[in-house]
């Protein structure tokens, strides 16, 4: 076991653009990987979210029952939870459905815009919550990192601040950009 | 639907910790695999949330469908808006759109090949999961990892230099693009091309050596006859931005050619299954589910006469000698993806060297001149269609999106069933089976952000249930 801090990323209801911006750190990704143990992420192959994770970046809004289970579990097991990008921070694009309601949303896709077997999927797939919510409406959040997506420079700066024990600086972050 | 006596294997994310997809494998009375279902579990409802919003917002909202291929949605959306404006972009505007689109093909194909699939190819499907990621690749084969990071950056940088940022850029707008290209940016991109070509050719050489070790897998990884569909230009060569749809069957015969994508509803149907949020698109003439076809890099290199650029054409000739004119295995998506990437880099250079590429005329201006528009492009994963209806003020009344991964849905389901049939031989689950079930899905590089997302490897919990629902066997990874 190493003494390096443990680091995780997860995604809820988003477009994966924030994770792509994380990859846009390019070679700096290898610097980060040298400074932390990546213990869980869709980008690596470890399957179980461990106990006592130091830092977790959360992309996406909380939109389905599955998202809800996941974020509650992650919060319990994580020291510093970072709302990663506008969908996590404000619900952003997933939240655009909130004034419409779940039923008309599903009917457009699966009844009106289908050729055959028109029906709302109900088996196995998780039900949508009535509203897509920002992460902090569901569990406490420690750091907010806005942007659509946050730039790779910003992500790198915040991670280095956290790893080196400083208050993370999100100066330069902008919503919607 | 399953009969009460049917055994089934549910491959489920571990207590819903992670993963936006799941798999169920159905067994018949004899314990043999009867069928498989690939469940996509996220839904955002873009077709409805854009209703009531002005069309000039469409490209930037629709780009948020996917952070891996936002440019594809920018392009298809802007092309649908071009029709509503009843304008064509000036030729330079169209060429600049092509450059950004190709840059995205390069970065997305690089992500799929290097970051996500090369660990399996380098270490093998049965290797230690702890090292099977891009960081593990960097330790074992630093050149391969550097090339992967470098080629992906090449594409992302072009997008940033044209559109101001790498993910969810602006730039592509109804009528063309929002700014001409400067000589400085052109030269900056041109200076990065030689290294991108060299890195891609190194990857192709490495892949060709690697391929011989995976012959057994290639024979079971989604190896079945199906049709293929993609856009081609006037000469029948690959076109990622415009042109006509060509559909070829498993014997290499054209089922259709010179199809206007605007008529998609005449020949493509969309079916709903109760167990997934991803609709399955099918070729109407053959019905559902017989009208199965594949799209994406493999389909593009199959339906085209040639790629239309010199280096990629040499590689395509060799591809056809090695795996055949119409290869039936989805394993060859990897190989095709590399050739598609090489072609895209060559085309970017050709376009940048065009005599009018610095022209200030890049955008056609107009108001709403039509109440309906359909836009098409080749996204990294295949043909993408956006279809909007607006009122006279340009307020969206209705939208339909046909996403590349939806075209491949029937093929992904069949592939999972095939891998399961090959590896599930009794009521005993094995690690190699799970590895391969993940890997066969990864061949299609399903951009589930375009309906959900499943980048990387899905955590799996597999249960083998008896007819009474009792757990016969269980495996986690």
Blueprint of the fold:
The complex is a heterodimer of chains A (177) and B (477).
Chain A: E1 6-11, H1 17-23, H2 28-35, E2 37-40, E3 53-59, E4 62-64, H3 65-76, E5 78-84, H4 86-90, H5 102-112, E6 128-133, E7 143-145, H6 152-163
Parallel strand pairs in A: 1-2, 1-3, 3-5, 5-7
Antiparallel strand pairs in A: 4-6
Helix pairs in contact in A: 2-6
Chain B: E1 7-12, E2 21-27, E3 33-40, H1 46-49, H2 58-63, H3 70-85, H4 91-123, H5 134-140, H6 142-163, E4 172-173, E5 176-177, H7 183-211, H8 215-220, E6 227-232, E7 244-248, E8 254-259, H9 264-267, E9 268-271, E10 280-283, E11 293-294, H10 297-303, H11 310-323, H12 333-352, E12 372-379, E13 382-390, E14 396-402, H13 404-407, H14 409-423, H15 431-443, E15 461-465, E16 471-476
Parallel strand pairs in B: 6-11
Antiparallel strand pairs in B: 1-2, 1-15, 2-3, 4-5, 6-7, 7-8, 9-10, 12-13, 13-14, 15-16
Helix pairs in contact in B: 3-4, 4-6, 4-12, 5-6, 6-7, 7-12, 10-12, 11-12, 14-15
Report on this model:
The complex is a heterodimer of chains A (177) and B (477). Chain A is α/β, with parallel strands linked by helices and 177 residues long. Chain A has a single domain, classed as Rossmann fold (3-Layer(aba) Sandwich). In chain A, the strands form two sheets. A five-stranded parallel sheet of chain A has the order 2-1-3-5-7, sandwiched between helices. In chain A, helix 2 runs parallel beside helix 6. Chain A is elongated, with a radius of gyration of 17 Å. The relative contact order of chain A is 0.19. The longest helix of chain B has 33 residues. In chain B, helix 3 runs antiparallel to helix 4, helix 4 packs antiparallel against helix 6 and helix 6 packs antiparallel against helix 7. With 477 residues, chain B is α+β, with helices and mostly antiparallel strands. The radius of gyration of chain B is 22 Å and the shape is globular. Chain B has a domain of 98 residues. Classes of the chains: A alpha/beta (177), B alpha+beta (477). At the A-B interface, helix 1, helix 2, helix 3 and helix 5 of A face strand 3, helix 1, helix 4, helix 5 and helix 6 of B.
